[in-house]
Specification:
3-stranded antiparallel β-sheet; ADP-ribosylation fold; alpha+beta; 4 helices; 32% strand; disordered C terminus; single chain
Length: 117
Amino acid sequence: MREIFHIADRATWDSVQAQGGPYTMSTRDRTLADEGFIHCTATESQTTGVLHRFYNDVPPDSLVLLVIAPDHLDVRDEEADGDTFPHIYDPLPLTAVTEVRPIPTVSAHTTHHPQTP
């Protein structure tokens, strides 16, 4: 069974759960209505790259990693930044979230220094 991942603000996720859903945040400070889809990752290593690039200044305890079963969702694998990412073109029902994980703190929030030749 395929799983995809989405980085969510913990307070937003908690609020959506309390209201019974659906979840409609696309990415940091942007909604599904703003972007047209919900940004996801295909693997945990891809998630780490997104954390480095877009969330490095966010405390890891303020984020959660949603594990999503994409069956019955409009998910399209699309190219971005030289990689392929799954994008959800629907509001995310709470029933599609199979697990909520903490954000990995060690690998996700270390500074990346490219090697020089």
